[in-house]
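Internal ticket - ligand job 74, zinc ion:
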Amino acid sequence: MRLPQQLLALTCPECGTDNPLEIVYGFASAEMFDSALAGLIALGGCTFDDDSPAYRCRRVDCETEWGRWGDFPD
Ligand SMILES: [Zn+2]
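stdout (structure tokens):
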């Protein structure tokens, strides 16, 4: 069961588009590159902290990033 703020987190705060790309951090494996090319995830680079965004809007003319890893304990 999702908490309300988690549902909110899955809608772009700028344009309201849902189903955002999850930003994946760390060394990108070949599988991760394939997923990014397929539009399933976004690659966030090798370093991140609790303030790094967790989601990126899938609209290419928006690309708003939001959510923080620290907000999602698991
Ligand atoms: Zn957006």
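Auto-summary: The beta strands are 21-24, 41-43, 53-56, 65-68. The CA atoms of residues 6 and 72 lie 8 Å apart.
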